[in-house]
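Fold description:
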Amino acid sequence: MKLMSINTHSILEEDYARKLEEFVQTVLREKPDIIAMQEVNQSQEAPLAGPELLDGFSFGEACSLPIRRDNHAAQVARRLYQAGLSCFWTWLPVKRGFGSFDEGLALFSLGRPIVEIDSFLLSGCQDYNNWQTRKALGIRVLGQNDWFYSIHMGWWQDREEPFQRQLLRLNRKLDHRRNCPVWLMGDFNSPAQVRNQGYDALTASGWLDSYLLARQRTGENTVPGVIDGWESMIPEGERDRGMRIDYIWCSRKLPVLESRVMFDGGAEPVISDHFGLMIETTPVGEEG
């Protein structure tokens, strides 16, 4: 089973059309079973998506907005369908971004239909117009007990919406699911090299870093240096250092064959201000 995660930055990226095609071509080649995306945007003034863009879409209860034509997840799904790859997907709007975009989370399942969708608030704030609003989006797919969540957390140092309180809500919401494998995939805004902050709080909560579980590791950092939101938190002399802030965590110690950083300018081109991450694992959550 292959799991992929990426903070896409999507339609905010320069040369977006090319990067969209490069992402789709990589998905067609790698065929990950589950894809988690963060910062999945659409323009608030774009026309509504037609039926041809909604193939495979599952409408979650918390999805209060219509899908628009330039929705990044819809555009990815359409291209996968046109290439002959069946996919099932869902999108959750979280907040207004940069004044004119709906920003949200997405999850894709390639091959297996989505049978359950879960979503909940991570932040205390739930104002759609407040950039600090954070949510989690999860799915379960046909034939498996595993739950897969797309996550985009806040910062440890945030006075109004600190990481620690968001993690507490996350753990409370998912405690009842820990009798089966739970995967947290996404941007956690917590550098692995910084002690006594977000990374250590996650491990202390029982979450296992798939990077450390992996028998084989290719790449490490998931951002090349200072990106949007980090300017005030990184000393000027350290701003060229990369960070590992994107993760795939698991609730159980499961065999991970490989952990690989993607879209870092090596085997795949850079398509976002974050690199992607993919792991290969042996599923143990099959339904009987």
